[in-house]
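Run log, item B.
One chain of 408 residues. Sequence copied directly from the ordering sheet:
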Amino acid sequence: NSGGFTYDANGNMTNVSGLTNTFDVENRIVTSGNEVYAYAPNNQRVYKKDASGNEWVYLHDVAGRRIATYQLLYNGNGQLVIAGGTGNVYFAGRPIILDSAPVVTDRLGSVVSRNGAAADYFPYGEEKVASANPAEKFGTYLRDATGLDYADQRYYSSASGRFLSSDPYQASGGAADPGSWHRSGYVGGDPINYLDPSGLNKQNPDPTAWGIDGGGNRWAGIISLTGWSEGELQTTYFAGFGPVMAGGGAGGGGSSNTKCPETVPQPPGLGPNQLQANVNAAHDFYNQALKADSESAFNVLMGFFIAQFRVNGDWDYKAKYDTQPDQSNARIFGNFNFGAVLQSFNFSYKFTQSAAGAAQILICASGGACGTGTPFVAYPYGDQVSDAVDIKKGYDYEAAKRAGCKDP
């Protein structure tokens, strides 16, 4: 016993400064303080009973990411029911909504903004200003009410900067990497440059690689951390907008005599150049984010999109009208605007439509309208067909506009 730490025969930390933990034969925590946990065969946690006796179940996608949390309750007849629930949404491999709240993450996967409230951490994950638990916080981990981080395959203590159990894969340590000799250490003692999403293997995030192309334009390659099989999803380029997308917008791509595709009806009250104004606003915002912190600019841009396009956001035009045909025109224009704005950043169409589909899936899970297909796999990629049609029109219009088409 040293510094309030005690261990079992397998080297698992059974006491962390007064917090008592018990482990099963697989070296997984089954009780921590007054909380109780259970796991799936792949060692992912799927059940929790908290200190108040509330029971929760966790659902994961095929990539192993938590996508929903539901509470287990008993009705008046003593029957077990699933109640409520919160959802997570991922875009380009990064979380943009966690437990139904918009978030922004940094290059190491730490949540630096939730619902507009900023967060910051010391190198090994302790919060500089404490906030409520449970919640995803440091390095992709879910911080429990106990203060420990659930790290997918192990548990992590930000207070001590180490895992509570030894790395089970002995071959991950070697003479060439002295930092690996500490079998419970976090990322070889380098938390500034590495993360460990699974709790078993440190990773160099490098989500953003900056450079200058032959024309002097700045570009950023955003690499998906989840390794989609689709080649076009591995890297998304923002290119050709000038050194820092000066002027607040993508601008045209040259001169052409080609006639632009038709636009869609606008509801009343919008300016005649509302679409271009929105494109400019998005690029102005991203431009400022690049100047403030180039490493987090992409995630900050995702947060901007969430705020603008979410229900009752500034660009949720259908929520602003109560009567027809204005509401129908507003819905069409909102979808058209979505496609155009994302295309102006050079996202692929499949990427754009899948982003809309992911949002529709969350709406469906909350009791709203459901779409069809699967994001990145089958059209309309989780969205409703009618909305997808209008998104494609906006996407094609902006592509033609950037190529230099002429409006009638």
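Observations after the first pass:
- The CA atoms of residues 318 and 331 lie 5 Å apart.
- The mean pLDDT is 81.
Flagged for discussion on Thursday.
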